[in-house]
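Standup notes, structure subgroup. Blocker cleared on the calcium ion input:
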Amino acid sequence: MTGVVLRAGAATDVGRLRTINQDSFVLLGDRDLFIVADGMGGHQGGEVASRLAVETLEVAYQDATADALTEAITVANHRIRNEGDADPDLRGMGTTVVALALMPEEPDPDEPVDDDAELPQHLLIANVGDSRGYLFRDGSLTQLTEDHSVVADLVREGKITAEEAEVHPQRNIVTRVLGVYETVEVDLWPVDPVAHDRYLLCSDGLFNEVGADQISSALRRLEDPNEAAAELVRLANEGGGRDNITVVIVDVLDDGGVAEAASAALAGGASGLDSGPAPAASADDDPAGFTTAMPAVDPGEGLSDDQLDSVLTGRPSRKERRADKRAQRSRRTRLTWRALLFTLLVLGVIGGAFATIQWYGTSTYFVGFDDDKVVIYQGRPDGILWIDPKLVKRTSIDRADVPERYVPAIVAGNEQPSLAKAQQLVGNIERDIAEDGSGTGSSTTTTRPGGSTTSSTAGSTTTQAN
Ligand code: CA
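Run returned:
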């Protein structure tokens, strides 16, 4: 089997309304790695975050495996986060990432391992955020990735339609992002390479301006990937160009016989890569050691008549019957005690958990938006169980005056360990407004803490509003 051969082209543009291109991309043809990242936050934070994502992946992705790709994205997450924490100008920066890599398929754990056999190659798309990976096959365009955004969640939950999502005021709020949270969950989409397939990686500046039909038509018309990418960027600018636009096109020139092998094996059914961790083995189902051993009957020196009778008739002897009764009584007593102890223990655990959750749910403060004002809440941005965040202080700062670099963090719910710290942040915002003399308006709407539509994800941050 020969190897899979890919060819790639790309184009990027600042768009018609922005002054800075915060998108980054890279084509590493020799390593079969292609990346698009769409940065967000702050003055220069967005461009720094997307550049860091691309650069870190380039360096950290060493083995052509799914684990290595996920790990490299995790490393990028830490790096962006650390650099953001270290530099006030970059604080709160984040980026999406969508990457396509060619790698040997993971060996099937159920198949015997043949060290000499060359594993077939497949393509893997990794995604965090709302940039997208598409497959253009046989003239039709399919979105492979799922957007990690508030509106995509709402569409999946059936609360709004895809058409409503396109014009939804919260369409810029992403729910997963690199550089903002301690951990990052990466979606992986394995695909078999088929000759003549085209893959499209792009930032939202493309698909928010250009419809799927137009994208398909350009991909059909222009064979050269650079020309097709440039045409898609042109169409996005023609459609408004309200955001940065980045397009990477990867063509499968030769599938190395993978498609043939795959169609031969099609009867076996496709298997996804998502073999998550096996469920933990179930623990002993005997929570408090309730099983009580039968007390041993006194070993007799010799058999009495009664015991002999018992052996002969198969009925318990009087002595055994007495011992049984004693054992039953003692077992009942022990059971009562154990039950009481167990109940107390359970109540203790529940009480402790209740106190812990109450503490966890109210121990922090965060700065958020309430209608058009900046406010301070007590609690967690998404609330926790029965504890909704409580509005404790309303400031006079208008949302529209808040410098853009603060907006993602405030929308995400910027947690502070104390009320004093939260007030200090508000003070910083006030000071910066006074210094800047001009805030930037933002049309992004906040995710209302405690609101019934708040998504269940760990948090959300926002891209810049259009
Ligand atoms: Ca964007």
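Discussed briefly. Residues 81 and 179 are 4 Å apart (CA to CA).
Next: hand off to the docking folks.
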